[in-house]
């Protein structure tokens, strides 16, 4: 039976979390909301509406959500031509593909942003499919993004591993019934990732590639 490796992208394979923090912080600032960057960082990995709610609270003026999302998208879009993949991220995907894994990306990105991330990875030949924000009704930490990725891979949960960098990733993977591997390169503490469901934790894609034979992906 086939096996799958499902990957989050931002902060896991491509070094974008802090770009998202700064551009969301600026979008909030432009709208008159002065929020600390660490609060934004803790929300990275959520879809736009959920991120805004996490930072501003459920009692916010929801009519601002679309404008905030649009401002963040415009600010972040300035970096599309120079998004940096983590070292060996593409090599990790190619290795897993070569080992017979179906590699699927599960990301809240879509459209031009997703295209920019895939260009940064430069590993299209290793990617079986992509589950983007356009394909699901609920983003992480709901299990739907991971479940959809499994459908695209044609693999049951027990034959898959999900790799991410946030507590939202780990919770989504756990709820979808897959084993979860966490990477520290997104800036979230090991203890928080383990508490959220990570069964193994590595520094970054290069460390996971080096330790692949002893990892849940073996």
Automatic annotation (TrEMBL):
Entry-linked InterPro entries: HAD-like_hydrolase_sf, HAD-like_sf, HAD-SF_hydro_IA, HAD_sf, PGP-like_dom2
Example GO molecular function: hydrolase activity
Record keywords: Hydrolase
NCBIfam families, per the entry: HAD-SF-IA-v1, HAD-SF-IA-v3
Name recorded for this polypeptide: HAD family hydrolase
Native species: Streptomyces bobili
Organism lineage string: Bacteria, Bacillati, Actinomycetota, Actinomycetes, Kitasatosporales
